[in-house]
Design brief:
Layout lengths: L5 E5 L2 E5 L4 H12 L4 E4 L10 H15 L5 E7 L6 H6 L6 E4 L17 H13 L4 E3 L10 H15 L5 E3 L5 H6 L6 E5 L2 H4 L2 H5 L16 H12 L5 E3 L8 H4 L14 H11 L6 H13 L6 E11 L15 E11 L1
Bound molecules: (4S)-2,6-dioxohexahydropyrimidine-4-carboxylic acid and zinc ion.
């Protein structure tokens, strides 16, 4: 029987996940599939996932990498303004959402959207609204790095207003401005990562530069982190966990020209348990980690029980050549058992 120092989570979901492709996919997919019940899979491959055939083939490669773990890859398409109703209808059953990147804003986003002219975007967004396909957005302008997300908030609002039936998910929010925007439009939702609940820009660049904490959007100010933390810990009904776990090979991170992304998949649940327990909010973790996402997306993930226990776990320094957050450090919670069904 689990003791008092254990926490049981049902069907955790990672609503923003990079699984990559090829050898990297083979190396890291299981780190999510072991402990999560499903995840929204980002489409920023090279080339990006833009057709039904590409979605179907990528899902098959993910399933192959996962083996017999119980895990649903909820697939996404890389947004293009030219998608029309007939095209989207033809692949509606294959995807759970569509991800929009501003052109060139982050890893492999060169084919994204330039300018946010509502009339240019209208046919595709109206079709999505009609087909009830949620729109996930990487919301950053190409302005000053600390202001990019806040500058994007008016664009979120313009889209939310123009397409009131379209569910818009503000991905990996990092600012108080984004948390506040949730209250203004019914159809705005958000994901929050683990690392943005824990770090500020000081942790990335305040001392020796920490390449493994460098990501986009960059971590912001203490008051921003506080707003995110309050939203997560209070189980804000429009907020979901999305790790944005984004593996890059060690040599691409420890380089002149460091790739953006924090690899958190193997430690996400343990550290979230520790964080919520420390703040006396453990009863709200199920909403943040699964229930809100199920309601917002209308999905029912496979049953899976994760039992975490308060027992030190020393994080490996590398997973197949990728350095995780807390590499070599000891965290307070461990995975004790995973049960399907
Ligand atoms: O830090 C990031 N890494 N932010 C993103 O938006 C993309 C991601 C990646 O794919 O590496
Ligand atoms: Zn991402």
């Amino acid at each position: 029987m689990p003791s008092a120092s254990t926490i049981t989570l049902n069907s955790p979901l990672d609503m923003h996940l990079h699984l990559r492709d090829g050898d990297m996919l083979q190396n890291i997919a299981k780190e999510s599939a072991k402990t999560f019940s499903g995840g929204i899979i980002m489409p920023n491959l090279v080339p990006p996932v833009c057709t039904k055939e590409e979605v179907v083939a990528y899902r098959a490669r993910i399933r192959d990498a996962i083996g017999d773990e119980t895990f649903i890859p909820y697939m996404t398409l890389f947004f293009k303004p030219e998608y029309d109703h007939a095209f989207l209808e033809s692949l509606r059953e294959e995807i759970t959402a569509i991800k929009l990147y501003p052109a060139g804003i982050t890893t492999n986003s060169e084919g994204g959207v330039s300018g946010f002219d509502i009339e240019t975007l209208r046919p595709a967004l109206e079709a999505m609204s009609d087909l009830a396909i949620p729109l996930c957005i990487h919301g950053e302008t190409n302005g000053f790095v600390m202001d990019r997300e806040a500058e994007f908030v008016p664009i979120y609002e313009k889209l939310a207003q123009a397409f009131p039936k379209l569910k818009i998910i503000m991905e990996h929010i990092t600012t108080k401005a984004s948390v506040d925007a949730l209250e203004r439009f019914e159809n705005l939702y958000a994901t929050i990562t683990l690392h943005h609940l824990l770090i500020t820009l000081d942790d990335v660049a305040g001392g020796m530069l920490q390449p493994h904490l460098f990501c986009k959007p960059i971590a912001k100010r203490p008051e921003d982190r506080e707003a995110l933390l309050q939203a997560a810990l209070s189980a804000h009904p429009k907020v979901m966990f999305g790790s944005d776990s984004a593996p890059h090979p060690r040599e691409a991170k420890e380089a002149c020209g460091c790739a953006a992304g924090v690899f958190t998949a193997p430690i996400a649940l343990q550290v979230l348990a520790e964080l919520f327990a420390k703040h006396g909010a453990i009863e709200n973790l199920p909403d943040f980690i699964s229930n809100n996402a199920q309601r917002i997306y209308g999905i029912t993930p496979p049953a899976k029980k994760i039992i975490l226990e308060e027992k030190p776990f020393t994080v490996p320094t590398s997973y197949g050549g990728v350095v995780p957050m807390y590499a070599g450090e000891t965290i307070d919670y461990s995975i004790r058992e995973v049960m399907d069904g």
